[in-house]
Amino acid sequence: MKEREIKFSDFFSKKEKRLEDSFIQQVYNIPGGESINKCIQCGVCTGSCPVSYTMDITPREIIALYRSEDIESILTSRTIWICASCYACTVRCPQGVQVTDIIYALKRLAMEQKIFPKRFPVHALSNTFVNLTNHFGRSYEPGLLVSYYLKTNPFKLLGMLPLFLKLISKGRIGLLPQKIRDKKGLSRILNEGQIMESIVPE
Amino acid sequence: MEYAYYPGCSLEASAKAYEESTRFVFDALGQKLVEIEDWNCCGATYYMATKETISLVISARNLALAEKYGNDIVAPCSSCYTILYKTNKILNDNFIMKEKVNQALKKDNLEYNLSLNVRHPLDVLVNDVGIDTIASRANTSLKGIKMAQYYGCQIVRPERGIDDKEDPQLMDRLFKALGAENVYFPAKVRCCGGMLMTTYPDVGLKLTKEILEHAQDNGAEVVVTTCPLCQMNLEAYQDKINKKFKTDLHIPVIYFTQALGLALGGSPKELGLNRQLIPFKPEEKTLEGSR
Ligand code: SF4
Ligand code: SF4
């Protein structure tokens, strides 16, 4: 790890250096994160992946790039956003590499560092999710989808209309969000959680 | 047995039929589901974001609330099941994290003492109640129904220990015992694309198309699932798939509890079958009366 840090600082700006550090820490912190060193580049992960056909960098290559310290290519790839977290790669990897969790950690890092194309759909979705849940304590599917499409591609909303109407007629869309009773208690918990968040574990 | 019941947000709305049929089935088998009072979103929403502690806190609030109902918390939605399962595991494995989470929960006089097992109803029904007992209570045979059991990702992967990761058998065994004819269906654990249907529809549509084709081409007349998101992805976009790929897909997708409920004598209405977008109407003749 030491060697790697020294090397990074030669090539990256301060901000990028912080980014690399935080990533390395995150990956090694996830359970089984060190497993990345055991990869034999066999490609079983890529072969098992249902969406590798549309990735610019395959799961196997992600592992290789990480080990050659090319984090930048990974963070700007389409792969981390297209991964559906289906765990097919992880359960088949002969070396026990936690491929899915590693890709997920990379996605988190990219979001944290705001590295994504503008109006990037996945990010819009997760933000919308969080805001709604903060507010009601429960998730509200129609509200979520509507504000998601408004943020990304309002025209798509029109295309979704027939399906929405069908679902309403089947009683499968509530017209009002559900709320929890103890909203005050929940926000007290969330505030304290916020503070706990900034305390680094270990 | 008595179980703490965590419905989750989807079962209140788009997956109402899952809620109705789950309650029916547990009732019919004499198992008690006690809904956790004032439960909140499982935290799936926060797992998508970058805040790890917060996501654990919001999820753990449910575990803390559930502890007073017993040792098992049952969550039918595969996503909720996964999130609650993961949270439980992390809090059990990581003492510091557990302390941090409890510190936050304390603000509302809550505490989680690690006493729960997080369970999926399929696991509870097959492993606690048992296929033999279920079969002996069934009063309607599913004979002649050609079924494709779709498990999806989350109830078997990465490591749940309730069934095989590549070729799970819980539903296969259950429905075979109830008379159904299981078709050859190797796509049973293929990913449905999850949220990709919203974020990258082209990719999502392709994934669901392949799963549905596997089922339909192998002669299935119904796909049976365990997850609200899979159900929606597989059922609601068949028109779009047909248009895009010039296919001819038209196959009902129901929850496993709905199929099980039919065997236990439930009416289509009781089991929420009136909520299907693509109706599932097993012919009167196939659903034979009491055995
Ligand atoms: S399957 Fe495992 S060992 Fe093989 S390339 Fe992928 S991560 Fe490496
Ligand atoms: S978890 Fe992601 S990378 Fe792995 S197989 Fe699934 S979609 Fe592919």
CATH hierarchy class name of the largest domain in chain A = Mainly Alpha
Give the overall shape of chain B: globular
> What CATH architecture label of the largest domain in chain B applies?
3-Layer(aba) Sandwich
CA radius of gyration of chain A: 20 Å
Helix/strand class of chain A: mainly alpha
Largest sheet of chain B: 4 strands, parallel
CATH superfamily of the largest domain in chain A: Alpha-helical ferredoxin
Q: How many strands of chain A?
A: 0
Major sheet of chain A: none
| Number of discrete domains of chain A | 2
| Assigned CATH architecture of the largest domain in chain A | Orthogonal Bundle
How many domains, in number, for the residues of chain B?
Answer: 2
Task: State the share of residues found in helices of chain A, binned by percent.
Answer: 55-70%
Query: Using only CA atoms, what is the Rg of chain B?
Result: 19 Å
Oligomer: heterodimer
The first-level CATH class of the largest domain in chain B is given as Alpha Beta
How many helical stretches of chain A?
A: 12
* CATH fold topology of the largest domain in chain A: Fumarate Reductase Iron-sulfur Protein, Chain B, domain 2
Point out poorly predicted stretches of chain B.
none
Report the β-strand fraction of chain B as a percent range: 5-15%
Describe what this molecule looks like in 3D:
The complex is a heterodimer of chains A (202) and B (291). Chain A is an all-alpha fold and 202 residues long. Chain A folds into 2 domains: 11-113, Fumarate Reductase Iron-sulfur Protein, Chain B, domain 2 (Orthogonal Bundle), CATH 1.10.1060; 121-198, no CATH class. Chain A has helices spanning 2-11, 14-29, 44-48, 59-67, 71-75, 79-82, 88-92, 99-112, 121-136, 141-152, 154-169, 183-198. In chain A, helix 2 packs antiparallel against helix 8 (99-112), helix 9 runs antiparallel to helix 10 (141-152) and helix 10 (141-152) packs antiparallel against helix 11 (154-169). Chain A starts with a helix and ends with a helix. The model of chain A is unreliable at 1-11 (pLDDT under 50). Chain B is of the alpha/beta class. Chain B has 2 domains: 2-119, Glutathione S-transferase Yfyf (Class Pi), Chain A, domain 2; 138-284, Rossmann fold (3-Layer(aba) Sandwich), CATH 3.40.50.11810. In chain B, 45% of the residues lie in helices and 9% in strands. Chain B is built from 12 helices and 8 strands. In chain B, strand 5, helix 7 and strand 6 (181-182) form a beta-alpha-beta unit. In chain B, helix 1 runs parallel beside helix 12 (256-263). The longest helix of chain B is centred in the middle third of the chain and has 17 residues, at 121-137. At the A-B interface, helix 7, helix 8, helix 9, helix 10 and helix 11 of A face helix 2, helix 3, helix 5 and helix 8 of B. One iron/sulfur cluster binds at residues 48-49, 51, 59, 83-89, 99-100, 103 of chain A. One iron/sulfur cluster is lined by residues 48-49, 51, 59, 83-89, 99-100, 103 of chain A.
